[in-house]
Amino acid sequence: MAKQHVTTTVNGDQxxxxxxxxxxLLDVLRDELYLTGSKEGCASGDxxxxxVMLDGRLVCACLVLGAEAxxxxxxxxxxxxxxxxxxxxxxxxxxxxxxxxxxxxxxxLIAAKALLEKKPDPTETEVxxxxxxxxxxxxxxxxxxxxxxxxxxxxxxx
Amino acid sequence: xxxxxxxxxxxxxxxxVGTRPLRPDGxxxxxxxxxFGADIHVPNMLIGRVLRSPHAHARIQxxxxxxxxALRGVKAVITCADFGDLPSEFIPAGEMMVNFRDMTRNVMAxxxxxxxxxxxxxxxxxxxxxxxxxxxxxxxxxxxxPHVMDVAKAMEPDAPLLHEDMYTIGVEPKPAKPSNIAKxxxxxxxxLEDGFAKADVIVEREFATQPVHQGYIEPxxxxxxxxxxxxxxxxxxxxxxxxxxxxxxxxxGMEVSKLRVTASEIxxxxxxxxxxxxxxxxxxxxxKACQPVKMVMSRIEVFRATGPTSGAKIWVxxxxxxxxxxxxxxxxxxxxxGAFQGSPVQPGAMCAFAxxxxxxxxxxxxxxxxxxxxxxxxxxxxxxxxxxxxxxxMDEIALKIGMDPVEFRLKNAAKEGTRAPYxxxxxxxxxxxxLEAARAHPHYQVPLKKNQGRGVASGFWFNxxxxxxxxxxxxxxxxxxxxxxxxxxGGSRASLSMMAAEELGIPLERVRPxxxxxxxxxxxxxxxxxRVTFSSGxxxxxxxxDIIRQLRTRAAKLWEVSAEEVEWAxxxxxxxxxxxxxxxxxxxxxxxxxKTGGPIIGNAAINATGAGPSLATHVVDxxxxxxxxxxxxxxxxxxxxxxxxxxxSYVEGQMQGGAVQGIGWALNEEYIYDDKGRLxxxxxxxxxxxxxxxxxxxxxxxxxxxxxRHPYGVRGVGETPIVPxxxxxxxxxxxxxxxxxxxxxxxxxxxxxxxxxxx
Amino acid sequence: MAHLVLSGTLKQLAGGTSELxxxxxxxxxxxxxxxxxxxxxxxxxxxxxxxxVIDGEIFPDAWLxxxxxxxxxxxxxxxxxx
Lengths: 158, 759, 82
Prior knowledge:
The structure holds three protein chains of three kinds.
Chain A: E1 4-10, E2 13-19, H1 25-32, E3 51-54, E4 57-60, E5 73-75, H2 88-95, H3 105-118, H4 124-130, H5 142-157
Parallel strand pairs in A: 1-5
Antiparallel strand pairs in A: 1-2, 3-4, 3-5
Helix pairs in contact in A: 2-5
Chain B: H1 26-31, E1 46-52, E2 58-64, H2 66-70, E3 74-78, E4 90-93, E5 96-99, H3 100-107, E6 112-113, E7 119-125, H4 128-137, E8 139-144, H5 151-154, E9 181-189, H6 192-197, E10 201-209, E11 221-226, E12 232-236, H7 241-252, E13 259-263, H8 279-289, E14 293-296, H9 299-305, E15 312-320, E16 326-338, H10 345-351, E17 361-369, H11 383-400, H12 405-411, H13 431-440, E18 452-461, E19 466-474, E20 480-484, H14 492-504, E21 511-515, H15 532-559, E22 566-569, E23 572-575, E24 583-585, H16 586-591, H17 593-596, E25 601-608, E26 614-624, E27 631-641, H18 648-667, E28 698-703, H19 725-737, H20 748-758
Parallel strand pairs in B: 1-14, 12-13, 16-17, 20-21, 27-28
Antiparallel strand pairs in B: 1-7, 2-6, 2-8, 3-7, 4-5, 9-17, 10-15, 11-12, 11-14, 15-16, 18-26, 19-20, 19-25, 22-23, 23-24, 26-27
Chain C: E1 2-5, H1 8-13, E2 19-22, H2 27-37, H3 42-48, E3 51-54, E4 57-59, E5 72-76
Parallel strand pairs in C: 1-5
Antiparallel strand pairs in C: 1-2, 3-4, 3-5
């Protein structure tokens, strides 16, 4: 069967690609657009390592078909920093040592950004429940939560 | 071998070591730039997929790959016929002795399949879709055999036999019949009978734990490229690129230097990536197809076919006097190894009672095969299982004699000079300090409410050294390229750079660390055993001191004095003597290096010894919901001896990460199989690891009892944190409910059943 | 003269012997002589790849590690990690 031709916006840039019907948005980002920052941990929407924003909504890219990106707006980890200026979340993750192996980090950062856009002043509990869809096996989540709360504080005063 | 105990900077004030700078590889990780195993694409690349056994135990009667080979787009198909059979040969790797006869069968089944998910064939094709289609076309005839999943059942005389040639080692005389018991081990000393006779209180309990997976979020992934002349490149996510090289070279009959292995960034390992699964298959496929082959495991494959740690049955008996002195300790461990021998029952047996000063102790252990994936190392392999049981029994003893659990442990704590249960005397260790810190911690005083309980447990793990190489290359502008050979799984590039910068007296930003491939350095044992900060750190320090010697010599030549008249301080060579102001910075000496003798590099190639055990004490408060059986962790404090914390944030990170893995092991994680030996919960939805909302902040206290054998006093810290949690949580849940829990996980249905049966 | 202490499995294979003095300058000599004096141990030593503990310090593979005149020596299984 012929591939689908898709036109979409990724991190502000218009892109076009071909994909099969079965390919997920995650497959397309990684294998057609070579944006490997979004990771596959499970391919079943359980780990959050593939978290991206689709039309301003937090989704697991492994649960969206590549073809569904047609005419929409996709934002990935590669678009989080602005030039060489890191987003406060990225900066705080580094300062708090909120990553060890780093495989979950892109997904966590995208999810945390989505939270702070909706709720600039979350409680610790709200942060924990919002991030419950992002599995981390290295950190035990402690420093991740601290980094998110600290970034939120910085962003509120900016 | 240099004497790394020379005080050097050990007594000087540290400028960088002990601070919390940003890690040098951090920006790439928060921007998605860092390349993990699956993040590679090369031209002309094929996709490889594996055909796996649907049966837990079966004889392979025939494999017909002809239809798959004929499918358009398929470039290579392999089976066991593409791998030479290897004789039984044991070499040490990880905490287990590796047998190549077993290893070749684990990566590709030969006579039999021994677990659901066992690889039977593999294909490489131009696309994922065609590879998947090709797998469907491979026809395998199986003779299904009865299977056994439980360690106790596997030890019974009429259990289904996995290996016809398995005769228990460590039993005299050698058994007449084969069995599923690969080995019997025994440790201990003293007289148990006398010891128990002296006891006022004896507690004896049986425990059971389930296999749990390391749970790394990144599945196994690699890309292999074999040229027509046999020279090969392998990119893979691994804890040990040199180990991968050694294993693959052996399995494929290659010369070691012909295979260059590059370690990608690794998305978690915890011991599970110290073995090979896809790598030999990718190499064999690439060799056949003469094209690069990329292979990535799905999450389902990771659960079905990669080593979890052992499940076990443990029996522990401890006797103590009424004033709290342990008089005898006895344990029997039965660990399941999965389909091939090699469970961590030995280290489990050695560690079980190690936090205690004992006169009469015995531990017997059995390594037993079952029809499950072959077990792989998981953070302090073997230790958490046995120590969970021991810490539970110690808790019961303390309760029976009316003694506070921390006081009881202090009364019996192992110290420097204590004879470890496995024989030798221990060097300096910090157990007592962690217990005292627990007792003094505000957590210990927080009042508890109804349905709440507090648990304490201590933990011991050995830590290792091992073969390690490192290079420091001085650039023409005086900046340093640091090449280490141990993959960075927890932030070690930060601590290694810090030690280099500290030694050289230069700012941290002047050091750029990378992890070298197998061609760039001499042999490095893998990242594991909590050895990197210790061993690679030691190698980096030695390499730095080597550079300093050279820099002093260069300065001496320029000043026309002898090298003894030149010292190195604060990043400068200085001429000694009153009134002398002559000094040259590293940058200045580097600039003229070409003219004073050539490039300046420091190399170290060591077999690091002197790693010291890291001891810990954890305190946890839980609340048990009597209606649902749910256990909530209210508060958790982890206290551990790090020797010296080079970068405290990353030491804390190890403590917190290990504690939360332990929480998952204690409360939720287990494998669920059907009656055909097929895994039912092969995904993160139903194999429930802790999520962010399951746990509170994990408070940490770093105690420092320096290890005199490391130039900075470093002890490994990575593994010990997973040792105490299950014991601490089981003790807490037992106190909260009044019921002693002896089986893991303490999931809600089990807790509820236990509470209900009490009434 | 190394004072070798055997416990557990090794002690059993040695027929109950728990201590012996071996005149060895380094680890390699020690293992060779141990195998000669207690033949039942020899195959076990070769297969298991024991680490040698000299005065409390573990040497996993160090054939040439010197053993002092009054050293206390133990054999332990090699320990790796995860």
